[in-house]
Structures are given as C-alpha cells and as structure tokens.
Amino acid sequence: MRMTGRGWWITALIVPPMAFVALFIIYPIVAAFTYAFFDWQGLLRGDFIGLANFHKVLFEEPYAAWTRNAFTHNIMVFVALMVLQNGLGFFLAYALWRELPGARFHRIAVFLPVVLSTVIVGYLFKLFMHPLFGVFNISLRGIGLGGLAQPWLGQDSTALWALIIANAWHMLGFPTLVFLAGMQRIPTEMLDAVRMETQSEWVKITKIVWPLVAPSATVVFVLLFVGAFNWFELPYIMAGLDGSPYGSTDVLGLYFYRTAFGGVSSGQPNFGLGSALAVLIFVFIAAIASVITVRLRAREIQL
Amino acid sequence: MRTNLFRIGVGLVATMIAAPAFAQDLTLWSWRQEDKAQYEQFISTFEAANPGITVKFETFEATNYNTILSTALAGGTGPDLMMVRAYGGMEAIASGGYLESISTETVPALAGFAPTAIAAETMRSDSKIYAVPFASQTQLVIYNKGLFDANGITEPQTWDELIAAAQKLKDAGVIPFANGTATAWQNETVLFDLTSSIMGPAFNDDLLAGKADFTDPRFVEALTKLKEVSAFFPDGFIGLDYPSAQQLFSSGMAAMFAGGSYELATFKTQNPDLDLGVFAAPGKTADDPKLVSIYYDGGYAMNAKGANKEAALKFLNYVASQEFGQAFANSLNNISTIPGVTFDNPLLQEVSELNASAIPYIFLVNFRYGEPPGSVLEQQEVAKLLGGQTTPEAAGKAITDGLAVWYEPFKK
C-alpha cells in the first residue's frame, strides 16, 4: 500500500509519542524484569541465573521469613484500612450527603488532611506519639490515665497500628469524597420512591445507596489495595528503613528498598533480589487488582 | 619554508603529547558536603606543593554515595580520586576491580598506621590495601560536666559506681541517660558504648579464632548489664528516636549520652554552652581495663583506570602525611588515623587517648559481609531485649544462629 500524504502525517504524529512511551515507560519496566534473572555483585551484573533470585526471596532463609513477615503486615494494613478508611469514609459520606448540621464545613474539614504531604503527616504523628512530649501521652496523663501512656512507635504491639491510624487520618477524606460524589449521582425520584416505602435509614443504605455507589466502591477498593501493598512513605518516615522495632512495621516496600539499595546497617545492595521482589509485588498487585476490578464491576448497576 | 612547517608540526605534536604532563586535572569525589570549605583548603596546600596538578573536589549525597560512585565507575566515568567507605562498603567497590591497590612501597607512610586502620581498607580476599584510611570513630559515654558537678558525681570507675551515679541523678530529677532506641542502629551503639569493658579485651579475638560465639558468657553478661542500665534511660525510650535523644542531652535535661565521638560536634553546634566530658564505661571492678569501641569511617582511594595515576598517587601520599593529618584534625574536628597527630580540641585529645585501649565495633567490623548482616540481627535482638521480649541468653543464641547461615565458624 502506498503511503498517502495523510498517512505520513499520522505516522509523523504518532511515532514520537510511541517512541517516548517505549523508551521511558516500557523499557524501564522490561529492564527491571530482566534484572531479576541475573546474579548481581552489588551493581555489577553477573551471570544469568534463571529463577534463582525468586527462589531465594520466597523459599530460602532468612529472606523467606522476611518476605512472609512483610507480606503479613501488608495484608493487615489492607484489612485495617478497608475498615478504618473506606468503611468510615462511606458513613461519613452518607452523613454529609444527608446534609446533617454543619455539612458544608465538614465537607471541607474531612478532605483537608488529604491535601497535606505524607512527609508532613508522618512527621506530625511521630511528634504526636513521642513518648515524652507527644500530645497522646500528655493528654492521657492529663486526664489521669498516665498508666495508658505508651512508647507507641517503640513496641511491636502498637507500632503498626500507630502507622495505620496515621494513614487513616491522612487519607480518610479521599474515599469520603468519592462516595459522596457517587451518592450525589443517585436520582432524586428514586429516593422519593423509597421514602414512600420506609423511614429506616438502614434499609436506605443497604438496599439503595450501597448498590448504587458500586462504581465509587470499585475505585476506592482497588486504589486502597494498590496503595496498601505499595505502602512505603509513611512507614519509612515513622518507623525507618528497618521497620523498627525489630521488623514489626516492615512492609514489602521497605523490604524491597533495603534489599535493592542497602540500608544503614545492612550488607550490600543486591539488585537481583530487589528486582525479584519488585517483580513479585508487581505481578501480585496486577493479578489481584484485576480480579477485584472484574468482580466489583460485575455488581455495578447502570443508572 | 618546508623546514619551518616541519618544525612547527613537530612542535605541535610534542606539545600535544606533553600537554597532559603539564596540566594534570584530577577529580576527588566525596560524600562530605559539609566539609567542602576545609577540603578546598587542603587541596590548595597540595596544589602549592605540586605545581601542575589541580584537584577538583566534588560532593554527592551521603546515603546514596556508594550507589552513585559504583555506577559511575562501572560506566567508565568515575573520578581519579575518591573517598570510599571502610569494610564491606569498600569491598563492594574494590571487588569490581575499580580501585588501584596501594602498599607501603607506593605510599610509604602507611607503614606507621595502626594495623586495625589498615585492616579497615584491606580487602579480605586478596589482602591488598585499597585506600588510605582517614578517620576513626569511637563509641563511648559523653557527659554533661555541669550536671555531674552539680550532683557531686565524678567519672565512675566501676559498674556499680555507674549505676549509683545514674540513681543519684534520677533522684535529683535529671534524666541519667538521654538515649532512645526507636531508631534501629541506636540498639547497636548503646551496647558498645556501655558494655565494651564488660565484654573485655579478649572477646573479639576469641570470636575471630572460632573459640567463642555470641552465646559466650562475656557477651551474655554485656547484654544483661545493658538491660540493667536501661532502667536509667528516659521513660518510654524504646519509642524515642535518635534526634529526640540528642535534643534531650544538648538541652541539658539529661546528664549522659551513650554515643559516638561524632556526637561531640553535633552537641557543640546544638548548644555551644555545654561543658562536655567523655569516659569509657567501666568494667565490673576498678581493675578491669576501661575499653571504648572503635571503627574506621573510610579512606581515600584512586581509580585503577584513571588517566593521571602518577599525580593521583602523589595526592594519596599527601593525605597519608602527618601535615595533612594535623590539618584534618584541626579543621574538621575528627580523629585522624595518621600517627603522631595532636589535637587542639582537648576533648578529641582525650578521645584519642581512650582509643589506646579499645575493642573493635564488632558487628560493623566483622559481621557485615553476608545476609543477614550481624548488625541487623544485633539491633533486632537488643530491641527485643530492651522491650522485654527476650532474655540475654536467648538474644545471644538468636544472633549466633542467624549468623550461622553464612558465617562458617558458627556453622555446627
């Protein structure tokens, strides 16, 4: 087929962006994948070793134990945030949508923390939870509950929860806003019809609102899933690269970074093992997120 | 006419060949951004003594320095001269074949250096030296002289005196030790700051000879004593991070800080009025040797594939000289590794005297060559111990078992 003038134009316009995407997006991803199949001496690439790096991070000690530990924490974070962030967000959105007194003010107040950078939130909560001068402990002592004052970030029983609370406080406004937008799309005729049938808020929520905000739920669930398994900034700022204390706040993101680039006290950076971990995290997130998306899409109703 | 052209041609070619010999430009890479002004000074001294050689000082961010350096060296764009870390950090670069090995023949001054300093920059696999070591760090106890005097306390000579002094401070409403262990690596420093004398001078040698491991009574005793003295750390110290701990000390709320000699400059900056003292934490009796724990920071190395290796070697000889060591100690307030250097700062003079009886900072010096690194294991187990989640015996065993994965002498 001969190229017409129009064809040349289209080619000339499409090739540069395609090349850009290939060079800066596809190439790095493929390169990261291939790194995982080589033996690395620090930053020096060695021989092709097949799946040995994957075997090592999944089945050989001490890596296997670290991987399990970090993965378990990611799951805990996902479940906890699903309740604290998305669950609470849904009910807050409902309250805002029902125009309870002060709704206009609260609509802004709830979203305000989302605007803050994670670095600031992490640092703030670290100060709040300071064992000596933190507002948590000072308040507890002030109301005569000094016995409950804890070194929140220093003990394995509270450290991960402290991070989860900080994250929920920070991001709560996001699911709230998405749910609220979903609720505002529900046609008034439908609500009027329900009001003829029942006065129960619970029935309205479970039978009408929840099914009709399904598209919003899909968005926030998938984003939370991806976010929970890529969790890095907050634990890095509040607990440090080692997931202090003794790995009780270690998550896959921190573990990957330590392995690939080396920590303050750890041995050599190992790109092979780091890339293997990155590939596993990527494949896991992509697979599960697709399943979640497909399943949740199926229950969405077209209005 | 023709001969003239020929002469000019010969002249040009000769100049081109000789040009590198006339202007030898070296680059020196470093992670010490904060020391740039002082290094410019050292370099101008060197340039004045070696006309025709110029050195350009370039700095990079400290935490990613090794990554940047090894990437540049692997890509063939590395510097002629560079600061490298010690121990495992140095080996990571040297094992790639990027560094030129040096010896007492090429850098004669190395013969006078302490063997432990040379060992820090020697690769274990080929026993060759790859850098001129520049500074040592000492783990010890720093104290606030004003608070000690106000409470009638002097430097303790026995472990019981240390505990008694801490108790006295606590009763007087002063926090005895400022330390917090929420920052992981602080779990490693406090052990060696406070219990090097309890471990004793022979423990490290026995470890390396395969005669002892971390279940050894000396190490278990050290952990027990650390747990005992941690009762005098601030409330909730396991949740107290490193910067807060430094603030507690420099603000005068706490009387002692178990830390490294590198803290001295920080404390002076945070509070210039502090009157500081240092001591080695004592052993059980006054007769036990009082030991500090020591390690080396890094060294100056040259590129094996550099263009001006002769000039680079001259620079390495300069940084191994006493003249440089003295300037380094005076202007950077660091403990130079060069023998015969004296210190203007009386505190540094005292630290350098304490260094005469020292044990190595064991986990960094000997156990960071495999996964899991000894430092990580030690930090986790000490954090558990201080948090009341394990016993000294169990912690010692967990460290030994963890290291047995890669450390041959511990394999049973």
Could you explain the architecture of this structure?
Chain A folds into two domains: 5-48, no CATH class; 54-298, MetI-like fold, CATH 1.10.3720. Chain A contains 14 helices and two strands. Chain A is 71% helix and 3% strand. Chain A is an all-alpha fold. Chain B folds into two domains: 2-134 and 297-348, 3-Layer(aba) Sandwich (D-Maltodextrin-Binding Protein, domain 2); 137-294 and 358-410, 3-Layer(aba) Sandwich (D-Maltodextrin-Binding Protein, domain 2). Chain B starts with a helix and ends in a 9-residue tail after the last helix. At the A-B interface, loops of A face α3, α4 and α17 of B.
Task: Give the CA-based shape of chain A.
Answer: flat
- CATH-defined architecture of the largest domain in chain B: 3-Layer(aba) Sandwich
Helical proportion of chain B?
40-55%
Cα-based radius of gyration of chain A, to the nearest Å: 24 Å
Distance between the termini of chain A: 46 Å
- List low-pLDDT spans of chain A: none
Task: Provide the succession of SSEs of chain A.
Answer: HEEHHHHHHHHHHHHH
CATH class of the largest domain in chain B: Alpha Beta
Q: What number is the mean pLDDT of chain A?
A: 89
Mean pLDDT over the residues of chain B: 89
Q: Give the tally of structural domains of chain A.
A: 2
What features would you highlight for this structure?
A: mainly alpha; MetI-like fold; two-stranded antiparallel ribbon; 71% helix; B: alpha/beta; D-Maltodextrin-Binding Protein, domain 2; 2 domains; 10-stranded mixed beta sheet; 10 strands
Please render the helix and strand layout as text:
The complex is a heterodimer of chains A (303) and B (412).
Chain A: H1 5-35, E1 38-41, E2 44-48, H2 52-59, H3 63-97, H4 103-115, H5 118-128, H6 135-142, H7 159-171, H8 173-184, H9 188-197, H10 201-212, H11 214-229, H12 233-239, H13 252-261, H14 271-298
Antiparallel strand pairs in A: 1-2
Chain B: H1 2-22, E1 24-30, H2 36-49, E2 53-59, H3 65-74, E3 81-85, H4 87-94, H5 115-120, E4 132-144, H6 145-150, H7 159-171, E5 175-177, H8 186-199, H9 203-208, H10 217-229, H11 242-250, E6 254-260, H12 263-270, E7 276-279, E8 292-302, H13 309-319, H14 322-332, E9 335-336, H15 346-354, E10 358-360, H16 362-366, H17 374-386, H18 392-403
Parallel strand pairs in B: 1-2, 1-3, 5-6, 8-10
Antiparallel strand pairs in B: 3-8, 4-6, 4-7, 4-8, 4-9
